[in-house]
Amino acid sequence: MKRSSNLKRRVRKIETAKGAGVLNLKFPDGSEQSVRFSCKNDKLQVLLASFAIAHAEGNPGEECGSSPHALEVARLIARAESVDSDVKLWSTVAGVVQAAEEERKEKHG
Q1: What angle do CA 9, 27, 87 make, to 5 degrees?
Q2: Residue 26: helix, strand or coil by DSSP?
Q3: 70 and which of 47, 49, 50, 93 could share a cystine (Cβ 3.0–4.6 Å)?
Q4: For residue 30, what pLDDT band results from cuts at 50, 70 and 90?
Q5: Residues contacting residue 11 through CB under 8 Å, at least 6 positions apart
Q6: Per-residue pLDDT reduced to its tens digit, 32-85
Q7: For residue 40, which of 94, 80, 89 has the smallest C-alpha distance?
Q8: Do 55 and 97 contact (CB within 8 A), yes or no?
Q9: How far apart are alpha carbons 57 and 68 in whole angstroms?
């Protein structure tokens, strides 16, 4: 239960945050990429996209309801070596997507 309440607290913090901002990602190959969020709901869409990715791994054939951009950003965050932000949300997104990708690799070899 504690984990759920932490996630709810993080989501509430995002909902009440002012501005949207930019997320800077650094990848293992040394490349960098920035993602600009036009509104605070964009961040929530990325969180929901990470859940959709995990859900799709357990339910093949079901359509994913997230936007292609949010799905792409969630996958980028999962592949990034570091995220230039102190928001714990991004480590949650990375963990969810990474776990789903690990599950897919185990199933499909």
Answers
A1: 15
A2: strand
A3: 49
A4: very high
A5: 44, 47
A6: 999 988 887 888 999 999 999 998 887 777 777 789 999 999 999 999 999 987
A7: 89
A8: no
A9: 16
Q: Tokens representing 44?
A: 């929530």
Q: Answer for the pair 83, 23: CB distance below 8 angstroms, yes or no.
A: yes
What is the reported pLDDT for 75?
95
pLDDT on residue 1: 45
Question: Would you give the DSSP letter of residue 94?
Answer: H
Cβ atoms 55, 84 nearer than 8 A: no
* 7 φ, ψ (degrees, to nearest 5): -65, -40
Burial class for 51, CB neighbours closer than 10 Å (0-12, 13-18, 19+): middle
Residue 50, class by beta-carbon neighbours within 10 Å (0-12 exposed, 13-18 middle, 19+ buried)? buried
Look-up: residue for tokens 């963990």? 95
